[in-house]
Design a protein that fits this description.
Layout: E1 2-6, H1 15-28, E2 33-37, H2 55-66, E3 69-77, E4 80-81, H3 83-92, E5 100-106, H4 117-127, E6 130-138, E7 143-144, E8 147-148, H5 151-172
The structure holds flavin mononucleotide (FMN).
């Protein structure tokens, strides 16, 4: 199963459009997909204590644990991913151990393309995740209303998914 994790809390999110395109492409390939949207299923702030027991945290932890790979879609905020995905990782911690993780970002401008590296480093160093060496970074011109704008961004979505599946299939067989 591939877990698609959408991190933006914005109702008009563009990174969610990327996440949905990944999900739809995976479905078209007949792959099992689970969808988790932090805007639909809110998580408490990680307090290092009681928050771990919250129902939504337990649910996300189980999905991460049983995923062959996880595709994370996040907004770029302040040259980084948003706080919501950092919080989700804090809450689910060791469930990430050894997971294959693909990353996609929606940004306002073209200069913040290294913004996934803090999260990538922490997943690698803390949980020995294998980060897919293909990052999807999209700005305004890649979107038209609540859809992808063109074939170019669609093919970049497919590239990220294909490379993630390539690794997941090789390592889970
Ligand atoms: C608090 C905040 C910080 C932002 N920081 C950056 C930034 O550092 N670099 C950038 O390119 N865009 C930045 N943006 C623009 C967002 O990345 C852009 O609006 C993107 O579409 C957000 O993702 P979302 O639509 O999935 O929520 C920022 C937006 C907000 C609200």
């Amino acid at each position: 199963m591939i877990l698609v994790l959408s991190a933006s809390l914005n109702p008009g999110s563009r990174s969610r459009i990327l996440a949905a395109a990944c999900r739809d492409y995976l479905i078209s390939l007949d792959r099992e997909v689970q969808w988790f949207d932090l805007a639909q299923t809110p998580l408490p702030f990680c307090d290092g204590a009681a928050a771990y027991a919250a129902d939504n945290v337990v649910q996300l932890g189980k999905l991460i644990e049983s995923a062959d790979a996880i595709l994370i879609a996040s907004p770029v905020y302040n040259f980084d991913v948003n706080a919501a995905i950092k919080n989700a990782v804090e809450l689910t911690g060791k469930k990430w151990t050894g997971k294959i993780v693909g990353l996609m970002l929606a940004a306002g401008g073209s200069g913040s393309y290294m913004s996934a590296m803090g999260l990538a480093n922490s997943l690698m160093l803390d949980f020995r995740c294998l980060i897919v060496p293909r990052f999807l970074y999209a700005t305004g011109e890649s979107f038209e209303g609540n859809q992808l704008a063109d074939e170019n961004i669609q093919s970049r979505v497919e590239l990220l998914v294909n490379e993630t599946l390539h690794l997941a299939d090789a390592l889970t067989r």
